[in-house]
Amino acid sequence: METDRRPRIEIISTGTEIMQGLYADTNAQWLSQQLVAIGLPVSCHSAVGDSIGDLERHLSLVAHRCDLVIVSGGLGPTADDINRHAIARVYDSELTEDETAVQQMRERFARRGIPFNDANRVQAMVPCGARVLYNEWGTAPGFLIEVDVGLATLIALPGPPRELRPMFDRWVRPYLLKRYPPGERFVTLTLHTIDLPESEINAKIHDLFDADPALYVGLLAADGKVEVRLTTHGAEEEKVQAALEGFRHQVGDRLGRDNIYGAEDETLEGVVAGMLRFHRQTLAVAESCTGGMIASRLTNISGASSYFLEGFITYTNDSKVARLGVPRELIERYGTVSRQVARSMAEGVRARTGADLGLACTGIAGPSGGTPEKPVGLVYVGLAWGNDSAVIERRFLGNRNENRTYSVNAALDLLRRHLLRQDARY
Amino acid sequence: METDRRPRIEIISTGTEIMQGLYADTNAQWLSQQLVAIGLPVSCHSAVGDSIGDLERHLSLVAHRCDLVIVSGGLGPTADDINRHAIARVYDSELTEDETAVQQMRERFARRGIPFNDANRVQAMVPCGARVLYNEWGTAPGFLIEVDVGLATLIALPGPPRELRPMFDRWVRPYLLKRYPPGERFVTLTLHTIDLPESEINAKIHDLFDADPALYVGLLAADGKVEVRLTTHGAEEEKVQAALEGFRHQVGDRLGRDNIYGAEDETLEGVVAGMLRFHRQTLAVAESCTGGMIASRLTNISGASSYFLEGFITYTNDSKVARLGVPRELIERYGTVSRQVARSMAEGVRARTGADLGLACTGIAGPSGGTPEKPVGLVYVGLAWGNDSAVIERRFLGNRNENRTYSVNAALDLLRRHLLRQDARY
Question: How far is it, in rounded angstroms, from Cα A417 to Cα A377?
Answer without folding.
Answer: 22
